[in-house]
Amino acid sequence: MAxxxxxxxxxxxxxxxxxxxxxQLGDGQLLRRSQRGPEVAHxxxxxxxxxxxxxxxxxxVSGDYLSYQIWDTVQAFASSITGTLATQAILKGVxxxxxxxxxxxxxxxxxxxxxxxxxxxxxxxxxxGSRLDCDAKKWRLFADGLNDLAIxxxxxxxxxxSIFILIVxxxxxxxxxxxxxGGATRAAxxxxxxxxxxxxxVSAKDGSQETLVxxxxxxxxxxxxxxxxxxxxxxxLLYTLFxxxxxxxxxxxxxxxxxxxxxxxxxxxxxxxxxxxxxVPPPSSVNPREPLLPAFQWRLSIRLGTPLHSIxxxxxxxxxxxxxxxxxxxxxxxRNTGVVCVSLREGAGSVDMIEACFHVEVxxxxxxxxxxxxxxxxxxxxxxxxxxxxxRDERLWDMVAATHLLVDQLYPRLLSEARAAGxxxxxxxxxxxxxxxxxxxxxxxxx
Length: 447
Hints:
single chain, alpha/beta, 3-stranded antiparallel β-sheet, 14 helices
C-alpha cells in the first residue's frame, strides 16, 4: 500500500461524498481507486440522493436545508390528507352520488369557485406581492394556516346546502391567497437555500420531493377515504389530527430556516443586542427569536423609500432634515403617529437602507417607554433622553439632527461586525419602496 501511495499520480472528488485516486502500476497502467463517504455507502442511498437532492448536496445548499425539508415533507403529507377529505366533501356537495343533481349545476359551482379564486389571486398579489419576501417566514406560516381554514370550510360546506356555493367561493379565495403567498415565499426560501446559483436545481428537486410526498399521501388516502366516507365524526377527527400535525410541522420548518439577510424584525433584534451587549449576534442566534406572529408592543413604524412630501412640508423642514446629515437618506419622524418616513437618495444602496433602518432603531430606543440598560453609546443616549423630556415639537427635529451624529459614530462599527458575524449586507429584505430623490450634494458621505 505504501508503494502504491508513492505512485499516486492524481486524485479527484465528486461533491463531498466520493473521492477517487489514480495510482500508477508497475507496468505503467493506471489503477482507479474509489472511496465513498459513509453517508452514501449504500448504492440505493446514492440513487436517492441524486434523484431527490440538489447536485452537490450538502455543499450546494444552505446549512438549514435538510432540517427544513424534513419538516416541509411532514407538513406536505398532512396537508395532502386533509386536502383529500376536503375534495371528498366538495364532490358530495356538488352532487356526486345524488341522482337528482345535474352536471350543469355542479359545473357552475366549480366555475364560480375557480373564478372567485382567480380574482382573489390577482387582488392579493396587487396588495401584498411586494411584501412577501420581506417576511417570508411569517407569510409562509400565514399561508398554511389559511389553507387549513379553507379546507375546514370545504369539509363543513355540505352541511349548509343553502349557502354551499358562498362557502366554497370564499374557500376558493382563501386558497388562491395561499397559492400566491406560499409560492412567493417558497421562491424566497429557495433563493436562500441555493448557494451555487442553483435555484433551478433546488426548486426542481423540491418539486420532486413534494411529488413523492403527495404520492405517499395519495396511497394513504386510498385506504382512508372508504373509512371516512359517510362518517362525519371520523372525518372531523382526522382533520383535527392532521391539521395539528400540519401547523406544528410548518412552525418547525420556518423555525429551522436561518436567513442571513436583514429584514425589519431581524435588524431590530440585531441592533437591540448590539446596543445592550456591544456585539453583533450571528444569524443563527437571531433567527430563532424572529417573531412569526404579529407583535403587540409599541414601536416606531418605518416607511422606507417614501416620496419627499411625506417628510417635508416647508423649507424649514428641509433645512432641519439635512442638518448634521451626510447620509444618502432624509428622515422625518412624527411622534404623535409613531411613523418614521425615509426618503432615499438616487443611487442609495443596500448599506444605506440598513443605515436608515438602524437610525430608526436608535430613535426607537430613545422613545421607548421602558428603556433598558445600554452598553454602547450609553452616555450619548442618556443625554439625548434627558433633552427629549423637554422637547415639544412633534417632529422632534432637534432629536433627529442629534441622532445623525450618533449614527455616524456607531454605524461603521455595527456594519463591520455584522459582516464579520455572517450577515449579508449587499442585499436586504427591508421592503423599500421605489421613490428616489435628489438634493444638493454638499456634505454627502464619501464613497
